[in-house]
Amino acid sequence: MLAINTMAEVLGLPGREAAPLSPFGLISRIESGLPLGALDRVARLIAPDDAQFKYRLVPKATYDRRKGSHRLSSDEGARLARVARVWGLALHVWREESEARDFLFRPHSMLEDRRPIDMVIGSEIGAELVLDILGRLEYGSAA
């Protein structure tokens, strides 16, 4: 449950009730369309100095169209949640935003010198590889 609540916090999702958000509650919110503000929030957290970063998650033309509905599609929301999940764990492992950012934006040898953030944005499998590295770092094995 910790990962779900961390993802919800990174996404800026307010709890509708006092109880923590359940996995099914998060799925429901993603399927019904995360607020466009969640994209802006995640982009500011991960890449505060890069105003164009959010367009790597949702193309600019699509982002501009979404301004009318104020909601992301379920696919866009799933991608954003994937990035939020990795950011939450990176922050947990590194304890400082600057260190977590450095990890995400620096090529990593276990990813064939690709940047973790690119792997996470690119696919679920890429995100799993990055989560595996973070898990190894969290528990002290070679990564």
From TrEMBL:
InterPro entries, A to Z: Antitox_Xre, Xre-like_HTH, Xre/MbcA/ParS-like_toxin-bd
Residue ranges constituting the Antitoxin Xre-like helix-turn-helix domain according to the UniProt record: 26-85
Record-linked Pfam families: Xre-like-HTH (PF20432), Xre_MbcA_ParS_C (PF09722)
GO molecular function, one term: DNA binding
Residue ranges of domain Antitoxin Xre/MbcA/ParS-like toxin-binding in the record: 90-140
Name of the protein in its database record: Antitoxin
Lineage: Bacteria, Pseudomonadati, Pseudomonadota, Alphaproteobacteria, Hyphomicrobiales
